[in-house]
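Async update (no meeting this week)

Hi team, since we skipped the sync, here's where things stand on the single-chain job. The sequence we agreed to prioritize is pasted below, unchanged from the tracker. I ran it this morning and attached the output directly underneath so nobody has to dig for it. Comments welcome in thread, and please keep replies under the output.
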Amino acid sequence: MPDEQPAPIPPRQPTVRQANLWERVGGREVIERVVAEFYDRVEADPELRPLFPEDTAEGRIKQAEFLEQWLGGEGRYSAKYGHPRLRMRHFPFVINQRAAGRWLRHMAEAMRAAGVGEQEIAEILNGLGPLARHMVNADDDVPRDPMGNVRLQ
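Output:
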């Protein structure tokens, strides 16, 4: 089978995230399923797997807390780590356009597997697409030292 190319990251569409997205998605229980499905896909992806630590337990927790907050739920991520500053936190990882596309594809598949509705998936991907594109840093001269669990203001 030929190497599958991920779909290009869609351009951001002007939209306003609808109210109650967190509730419409299904809350914490569903997001935890999404994150479990997502990381299972990443762990099986030979291109993305090297970008993640050997033990993904902490990343799974952080991802769930971030998504919860980003979708309008409780702000547990910022309470622990401060401002997300996602681009800076991802500097240690060399992320190219292809990796960002694969990340988005796995996230969409994980949402579908967890039972998130297509309308909500489209709305979420409309926000995550530009965010994934913003993480691309392969050609940038950025500090590559790991930040750990530094709390950022």
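Quick observations from my side:
The chain has one domain: 26-135.
Residues 28 and 68 are 7 Å apart (CA to CA).
Reply here if anything looks off.
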